[in-house]
Amino acid sequence: FFMYYTYILYSVNFDRYYVGHCQDLAARLQRHNGKAVTSTKAYAPWQLVYSESFPTKATASNREAEIKRKKNRKYIELLILNAGTNL
Length: 87
Known about the structure:
By secondary structure, this protein is α+β, with helices and mostly antiparallel strands. It has helices spanning 25-33, 57-70, 73-83, and strands spanning 4-11, 16-22, 47-54.
């Protein structure tokens, strides 16, 4: 039984967020920071600042799209801020 994740990365050096989805968060973060991901390599290093887990790849992908559709930095920052209170 595998989990899939929607995640948000933050680049301190460029004050930038990146939203994605994957199956292995640690490996994916390593790829981003190893500059193996074309869309993020210019902004490394990245920090994992938020993640949500889902039972299927489709639900993780849909959640990623939902966050991106909002095109709203404040929404992303509220997700991160409220993550600690949703436990």
